Amino acid sequence: MAAGRLAGKVALVTGSGSGIGRGVARLFAREAARVAVVDVKPEGGTETVELIEKEDREAIFVQANVLNPAQMKAAVAQIVGTFGAIHILHNNAGGWQREAHDTVLEDSEEEWDRLTDLNLKSVYVVSREVLPHMIKQGGGAIVNTITINAFLTQPGTAAYSAAKAGAFQLTKAMALDYAKYHVRVNGIAPGEIHTPLWNSTYDNLPNSNEVKQSVLNRIPLGRFGEPEDVAFPALWLASDEARYITGQIITVDGGISAGVYP
Ligand SMILES: NC(=O)c1ccc[n+]([C@@H]2O[C@H](COP(=O)([O-])OP(=O)(O)OC[C@H]3O[C@@H](n4cnc5c(N)ncnc54)[C@H](O)[C@@H]3O)[C@@H](O)[C@H]2O)c1
After folding, report:
1. What CA dihedral angle connects 238, 243, 249 and 254, to 10 degrees?
2. Helices (H), strands (E): how many in the chain?
3. Which residue's CA is the closest to the ligand 1 atom numbered 17?
4. Which of 5, 32, 78, 231 could form a disulfide with 27 if both were Cys (CB 3.0 to 4.6 A apart)?
5. Distance in Å from the first CA to the final CA of the chain
6. What is the pLDDT of residues 176-233, one digit of tens each?
7. H/E element holding 53?
8. What is the CA(180)–ligand 1 centre distance, in A?
9. What letter does residue 205 receive in the DSSP assignment?
10. Whole-model pTM over 0.85
11. Ligand 1 center to residue 96 CA distance, Å?
């Protein structure tokens, strides 16, 4: 067995065909976990697996939509069939509306449902399939990707922020409900992280560079985050090093939320 902080573990990472999820999947694999890369898009997912295999680590791609219960049931069965267990679940798939028109008056009911389902219901849909396996095998670790918008929101992100605030509290509720089965449930709240989703949001704006600079001015550590900045705390929360920690959300935002003024 390869040496590493996750040696012997199997990890399922949703939305790992891109951005933060890819960074997490790659780091988990480097730390010797066998990784199930779950994504709705095959191109990104298979690319993540190739990147992991290039480093002589083990991963499989499983195409599934985190909002489709039947697909998730089949995906979890396939992963358990291949690797024998799931010790770590990272509920990471999610996203916002790039145009920042996510307001009560501008969101259609379909858009509201899409954003709340993607960022909140998906945690329920996927966890519901994985928890029975964790309970049966005597424990596990779940990490949910939330966002600082859950407690420090911004204009044009109404459904997204509300859903992630729900995921914040769902993390704590699940931690309480499943502690007796030795399943720990924690979350990560990223700030401004360079990912394809993040880039496309800013690139969509007419005054992209100006907006980026004003956001940058608010980050005490003086730079935007990278997927690896989120992956390292996720690794720690998923590992046995965090064995006495559950129901906690770690903010990974370069200090944005530490105070009101930069
Ligand atoms: N990038 C940031 O600055 C930032 C900040 C805070 C929180 N987040 C959160 O981090 C997570 C990842 O964001 P990212 O920036 O890496 O985005 P990204 O778009 O780069 O990657 C998201 C991945 O999720 C996949 N995905 C989307 N919907 C899916 C579905 N229904 N089923 C399965 N897979 C699906 C996409 O195909 C994509 O590969 C999201 O939950 C997002 O809300 C990101």
Report:
1. -70
2. 9, 7
3. 197
4. 231
5. 47
6. 999 999 999 999 999 999 999 999 998 888 899 999 999 999 999 999 999 999 999 9
7. helix 42-54
8. 31
9. S
10. yes
11. 8
CB 257 within 8 A of CB 249: no
By DSSP bridging, strand 88-91 and strand 59-63 are: unpaired
**Virtual CA dihedral for 162, 168, 172, 178, nearest 10 degrees?**
100
Whether pLDDT at 118 is above 70: yes
Which one of 18, 164, 218 would you pick to mutate in the ligand 1 pocket, going by the greatest count of ligand atoms within 8 A of its CB? 18
Q: Mutation test of ligand 1: which of 26, 39, 113 has the most ligand atoms closer than 8 Å to its C-beta? A: 39
42-95 pLDDT, tens digit each:
999 999 999 999 999 999 999 999 999 999 999 999 999 999 999 999 999 999
Structure tokens at 47: 């690319």
Q: What is the set of active-site residues? A: 160
> How high is the pLDDT of residue 206?
86
Q: Quickly name the fold that domain 10-253 has.
A: Rossmann fold (3.40.50)
User: Does residue 147 have its Cβ closer than 6 Å to ligand 1?
Assistant: yes
Q: Which residue has the tokens 């992100």?
A: 157
What residue ranges do the domains of the chain occupy?
Answer: 10-253
